[in-house]
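The records we work with from here on pair a chain with its fold. Taken together, the tokens spell out the fold as the letters spell out the chain. To see the layout at work, look at the sequence and tokens printed below.
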Amino acid sequence: MSMATTKDTILGAALTTFIDKGFSGASISQIAKAANINQSLIYHHFKSKEDLWVCVKKYCIDEAINFQHIRHDTLENFVRDLVEVRFAVYAKDGMRMLVHWQALEPNTSQFYGQSITPHPLFDISDHIKELQKSKLIRSDQNYQVLSGVIFGLASYAFFDFAHVFELSKEQRDAYKELVCQILIKTLKP
């Protein structure tokens, strides 16, 4: 196996194992067994189980969104791009389960250490600050609060309204448009 193929095999096996068992319930030996490789190969490609967990989520995100850019030219484009990204990521098989498992971990700070760079499409703090400076987003609220509002509305359908997956494409698109309209109205200065 080539290095890239081995790493992809590990990521696929880790994704399946983490979806089934969560972070705490999965072991490196289970992942190695699922990948049909020696356990030491995992440590050749990943520093730790935490590193593998973060890489699995990044792998899912990258695969789902293909490095979309978030536009800053208008509030409407910014909101539509963010909502589109969230919908694409949570529609990815297993992503919701990974997020649910992570929420059950007693110490999630281990997944957000200094060595872990947040995905640029999910760390929107800089985007919001830039749009506030440009007066495209209201500046009477803290950027972290606005980030929470955006992600809360854009993600709700996939966690507390999970039958969104059973909706037709037209119904999902209508839901997405409603979320965009609410966010645009909420964020407008």
